[in-house]
Amino acid sequence: MWAFPEVFTGRFVRLEPLALAHAPLFLKHYTEEVYRYMSYRPEPSLEGMEHHLEALLREAGRVNWLIRLGDEAAGRISVIDPTPEHGRLEIGTLVFRPYWGGPANLEAKHLLMAYAFETLGVERVQFKVDARNLRSQKALEKLGAVREGVLRRYRRVGDAWRDDVFYSVLKEEWPAVQERIWARLKSF
Most exposed among 17, 58, 171, 182, judged by the fewest C-beta atoms under 10 Å? Predict the structure, then answer.
């Protein structure tokens, strides 16, 4: 199994281990818009957020960080299902509405992708997005990730089925994607 640092520090963000103590921060930034396309939609209460974070922290094969932008919590980012034998991992994010379009999501992804490609030597970093979430799809395309296709009825979300769109960045694509990210981060 791969090991991940507890903390990542960039120019704008700091990734620190996600903890139950962060539940009030998630409640503070709760909006239907942020959770609309997530596979799990917590109740907008402190208990609901604690339950949500407990589930994330218990999930086998998942490593979670809080995204800090200065003194503020901007969201969370996770490595999901790291698979060394196949040289791949998935990155999942949830960014609170006030931080959409800013450096938090971009730099948090960059920190994890750089570690994955440059330290772990992965072949592939993948992302999956609800097919209805056009905003997130556009963000991944702007990042430089390649849209691979739609897996129809990939998983259940409550009483409905969710189609997921998969994106990826391959090892040989990483240098160009990294240059693209650096150029965008310079604009902040």
Answer: 58
